Amino acid sequence: MDTNNKNKMITDKVKKLTEALYRVTDLYPDKEPLKWVLREASLDIYTNIMSVMSERKSKPLKDIINSMADIINNLELASLGGFISDINFGIIKREYNTLKLLLESKKEVILIEQENPVLIIKKSIGHSYGHNGHNDRKQKILDLLKKEGKTTIKEMMPDFNGVSEKSVQRDLLEMVKSGELRAEGEKRWRTYSIAQI
Predict the structure, then answer these.
(1) Is the pTM of this model over 0.85?
(2) What domains lie within the chain, and their CATH numbers?
């Protein structure tokens, strides 16, 4: 699914959810604080998501996701108090969780240039090195091997702070397959060196 379709799906879903939550809370007495807490929270989520999607304003997606968890908790309370039926509670909870998953599948980076915030949405990646992390690690492996010569993965790991050994192992295997590196030995005792051309 491309970004435009995903953004449309998110904005459509948040509109419908906000409308549904307003309809459900119409049944609450006006003096019931939960009515206004839920409405305000759903309106905040709606406003923040619409702002993020139109890139007019940057709001960390994790804050929006946390607000959705608060709504679900308050709805649970409303359900226990008999203000909302189990069926309506189940539907709204499921839809907020679906929206939450859609948002979590995006990872944001907020860059602030003077007073003009810009939101860049990137695809989620599995490690903290950023988009070029895979290539950065490979370059680091090459640099280490140029300096050290033959080296085991255990000897390399102190240079890869915050990266799992499995990630480095995958990079090493790819580099051996591509012919960049040579591997000698078995498992723990395997050493890696730069392949001679």
Answers:
(1) no
(2) 3-123 (1.20.1440.60), 133-194 (1.10.10.10)
